[in-house]
Amino acid sequence: MNEKEVCMYCNKEMQKSFMKLKGLKVETYKCSQCKRKILNEEQVTKAIEQLEERELKEKYVKHPVRIGNSWGIIFPNEVSKKFQLNEKKTELIIHPMLSKKMIELQIE
Fold first, then answer.
1. Residue 68, pLDDT score
2. Are 34 and 7 a contacting pair, CB within 8 Å?
3. Residue 97 — φ and ψ, nearest 5°?
4. pTM
5. For position 75, what pLDDT does the model report?
6. Average pLDDT, rounded, for the chain
7. Cα radius of gyration (the chain)
8. What contacts 61, CB < 8 A, 6 or more positions away?
9. What own/partner pairs with CB < 8 Å and gap ≥ 24 does 19-22 have?
10. Of 29, 41, 44, 57, which alpha carbon lies 20 to 30 A from 100's?
């Protein structure tokens, strides 16, 4: 959506503002006249993503599991559900980053 939102009640230009939603700071648009706040589609999507991220832990400590000659990792159930890892079409792309001692997973 464009950067300029117009209040549907006052027909005045709205300004970017913020509000608290379940403990999160969420971007909104606020009417300078009637003080009503709205969220556009992009703001709603971002707020939902923030809420979902907050539901997951910031860090999980897991130990690799030996599977034949390979190694695997077991994902917590809430992570599997959020990223739909149980669906057959889900693919994980592995990005080894040796300089950072990190392995990044991308979900396709």
1. 96
2. yes
3. -125, 85
4. 0.56
5. 93
6. 91
7. 21
8. none
9. 21/47, 21/51, 22/51
10. 57
Residue type, 102: M
DSSP letters along 20-79, please?
EETTEEEEEEEETTT--EE--HHHHHHHHHHHHHHHS-S------EEETTEEE-PPPHHH
Domains of the chain by residue range: 5-55, 65-107
**How far is residue 105's CA from residue 30's CA, in Å, rounded to a whole number?**
39
Residue carrying structure tokens 């606020």:
30
Distances (CA, A) of 108 to 28, 29, 47, 83, 86: 31, 34, 23, 10, 13
Q: Does pLDDT of 3 surpass 70? A: no
CA angle 107, 24, 83 (to 5 degrees): 15
Question: What is the reported pLDDT for 1?
Answer: 43
The secondary structure of residue 7, as a DSSP letter, is -
Other beta carbons less than 10 A from residue 53's beta carbon: 11
The whole-number pLDDT of residue 30 equals 95
- The pLDDT value recorded for residue 4 is 80
